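Journal club side-thread
Mid-discussion, someone asked how the predicted structure for our own chain would compare to the paper's figures. Pasting it here so we can look after the session.
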Amino acid sequence: MLLIRCPYCEEDRSELEFRSVGEAHIVRPDNIAEISDEAFAEYFFLRDNPKGLIYERWRHIHGCGRFFNAVRHTVSDKFVMTYKAGEPKPDLPAATPVAQPLAQEGAAK
């Protein structure tokens, strides 16, 4: 089970209290009614799926109910940090250290 820190409650809580709501810091087009279908599809549907750090929006649904942002490593699932909605995107290097997955027994070295 993962523990996620809510930046509003200032507590580490079970992942069961939270829901991911997608990628964070997505900029909405200024005049969405006038953009092309392709541009709308790109804005609405296409998201990055990097191997490494990703910036996500989360909601503490069984707690304070507030939205916040998190930096999570997609390989280890480790939450590097959480921060309040509306705060600027932190500038973290892509090589931020995270816990390495355990090697499987009997795997070739």
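Post-session note: The longest strand covers residues 53-59.
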